[in-house]
Amino acid sequence: MKLGIRAKLFVLSLSLIALSLAISYGYLRKTLDANLTTRIEQDLAQKLRLIAYAAEQAHLSPGDPKHWQETARALSPLCVARVTLLRADGKPLADSELEDDGLLGLPNHLGRPEIFEAQQHGYGKSTRQSATLKRRMLYVAMPFRQSDGQKGVARLAMPLTDVDRTMAQLHLALLIAAVLGLAVAVLMSSAAAHLAVRSLQKLTDTAHRMALGDLGTRARPEGQDELAVLGRDIDSLADSLSRALTELRRMESLRRDFVANASHELRTPLATLVSAVETLRSGAASDPGAAKTFLDIIYRQADRMNALVNDLLDLSRLEGQDRRLALYAVNLADIVKQQVALFWPRAEERKQRLQLSPSPASCLVMADRLRLEQVLANLLDNAIKYCPSGAEIIVGWTAEPFSRTVEVSVSDTGPGIEAVHLPRLFERFYRVDTGRSRALGGTGLGLSIVKHAVESMNGQVVVESTLGQGTTFRFTLKRADDN
After folding, report:
1. Range list of β-strands (E), 79-197
2. What is the pTM of this model?
3. Number of C-alpha atoms within 13 angstroms, CB side, residue 359?
């Protein structure tokens, strides 16, 4: 039969209590019996010395059994015990419990343990069932000298009635205590098992509902015991699973959006390419002017697709390397100046002022050089692309004396970005003005690459913008001298 947890706890509790009572009973019974018997024996030993002395002082002749019997009966009330006087060979001389003619039926006592021990060591004791009186008796014996110089043995015997009565009372008391204890134990163990199983059942139900997909359920245990700790751990696990599930759903949503956006971004140039190729195949290829026009279209769209694929690969690499890059100490000033020099002709062509703000001549940071160049290139490309003629673009960095980071900024005096767009600006394929971004050749991945690249270098990137006044991108890098 399969027992539940409640039944197992109940049986275990009862077994432990029953075992404890049995051990207690065995110990108390043995100890109490030994203590009581020892006290009676000590008392009898004192009286035995007096009996042996009195027997010696009586100067009785071995051939005068009547006087021996009278002496034994006279001494018995004084010690409140049965008095037996024996010859050295174990033959009884007198017994206070028997009539004169009863001595003839007494067997030889030489083989009795207390008599043998008394003759060997001067004192003997024994506890046994009396064959004559049919009771458990305590015997003590001691040698004495008769009037004719021969040794005799005086023996006292006392029934252990009081000890047996006390032990019987102990049995009854322990039996009552055991019954009461077991009754209380049944109630307490049943209540304890019920409480434990109730808490455990609640945890089981909670875990079962979680297993079925209900991650909103919670155990919310009270107390500090092991079950309460387990309940809080289950709740903590459910919280982690809920967060993980939410994150998975978010990632799945991002994946679907990414696939949809990537497909959309690729579909437009592909459609244009197909259309241009079909036009050329329809006969436009024979017209040099038309052929050049359509070949230019094919080139631009292929270049656009190439840029999109490259950006997708860069983003994939940044996300696939656990956001960690091999960082080395590089001179930030050199990299910024190099990027400004590369983009300065484009800014001049659009009649924009691209310049460096006053910054330290040298500044070492921990970075991946290629990724840092890519971050600056994307920010400068966006600023030049979306700012009108006459706009000012300023690149600079600051390194406070007691700061562990360096802040790099790219600011412009362009049209600015509405506040509603700022929280989503670093999302993949997110565009403030979809039509204008595509017209300018943007892939929608530049700022997402910036964010992932900066975070891979243990930095943070933020954007500040005021509509009609301009936009500033700031990102941080760790100083090389702090590593």
Report:
1. 82-87, 92-95, 124-129, 136-145, 151-159
2. 0.48
3. 23
